[in-house]
């Protein structure tokens, strides 16, 4: 009888361990899916003349924009461009290949000659990166400019539902704050160029 009880206890114990092991992959799977938004290629670093800004791209919510930003970074399109528009309390804007030259009158008008389909959904919190675009009258589908982007220095919820947010600054907001505070001309273009030296994929 004692032996029978021991056998029954062993079966119950094995059953409990088996159930726990079956449940474990679910939590591991959940952990892996969270890690996937960071690894292996979710992080980009914008190296500027005023410091580094680390951004986590939202591959899950804005895959086309994240892939495009990564592609242009690899091609070197952003190297030598500037933050050509800075508005305190709002945002800094960059990524225009026109800003590589000395003609400031065309800054903000350039791009890689294609647009990206809108991926609107993420909110405009402080420190998000989003794609610039032409206004609704000429762009009712709200397609994004191929390369230009902006980083918010404060929440800008009046833009929610209108522009494609595709990532968030996770390190270097003090650099963004420094950039937005530089002296600027009447077109909000920094008087002394703030240059993007390189965008690296991590």
Write up what this structure looks like:
There is one protein chain. The longest helix has 35 residues, at 2-36. Strand 1 and strand 2 (51-57) form a beta hairpin. This protein has a single domain (43-201), classed as Cyclophilin-like (Cyclophilin). Strands 3-4-8-6-9-2-1-10 form an 8-stranded antiparallel β-sheet. It has a two-stranded antiparallel ribbon with strand order 5-7. Residues 1-40 have low confidence and may be disordered. The protein is α+β, with helices and mostly antiparallel strands and 202 residues long. The protein has helices spanning 2-36, 63-75, 173-180; strands at residues 43-48, 51-57, 83-87, 91-94, 115-116, 128-131, 144-145, 149-152, 165-171, 196-201. It has 3 helices and 10 strands.
CATH superfamily: Cyclophilin-like
Largest sheet: 8 strands, antiparallel
Q: How many DSSP-defined strands?
A: 10
Please give the domain count: 1
Unreliable segments of 5+ consecutive residues = 1-40
Q: Order the strands across the largest sheet as they lie in space.
A: 3-4-8-6-9-2-1-10
> From the alpha-carbon coordinates, what is the Rg to the nearest angstrom?
24 Å
What is the CATH first-level class name?
Mainly Beta
Mean pLDDT across all amino acids: 85
The CATH architecture comes to Beta Barrel
- For this structure, the CATH topology is Cyclophilin
User: Which geometry do the CA atoms define?
Assistant: globular
Q: What class would the helix/strand composition place it in?
A: alpha+beta
Helix share, percent: 25-40%
> What amount of the residues lies in strands?
15-25%
* Helix-strand pattern: HEEHEEEEEEEHE
């Amino acid at each position: 009888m004692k032996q029978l009880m021991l056998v029954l206890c062993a079966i119950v114990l094995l059953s409990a361990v088996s159930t726990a092991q079956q449940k474990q992959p679910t939590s591991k799977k959940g952990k892996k899916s969270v890690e996937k938004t960071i690894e292996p290629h979710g992080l980009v670093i914008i190296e500027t003349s005023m410091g580094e800004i680390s951004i986590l791209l939202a591959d899950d919510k804005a895959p086309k924009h994240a892939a495009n930003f990564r592609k242009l970074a690899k091609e070197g399109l952003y190297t030598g461009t500037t933050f050509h528009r800075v508005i305190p309390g709002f945002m800094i804007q960059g990524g225009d290949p026109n800003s590589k030259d000395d003609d400031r009158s065309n800054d903000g008008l350039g791009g890689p000659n294609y647009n990206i389909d809108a991926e609107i959904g993420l909110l405009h919190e402080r420190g998000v990166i989003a794609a610039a675009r032409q206004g609704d009258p000429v762009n009712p589908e709200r397609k994004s400019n191929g390369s230009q982007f902006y980083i918010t220095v404060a929440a800008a919820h009046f833009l929610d539902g209108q522009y494609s947010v595709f990532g968030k600054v996770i390190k270097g907001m003090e650099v963004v704050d420094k950039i937005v505070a530089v002296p600027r001309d009447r077109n909000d273009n920094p008087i002394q160029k703030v240059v993007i030296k390189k965008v690296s994929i991590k």
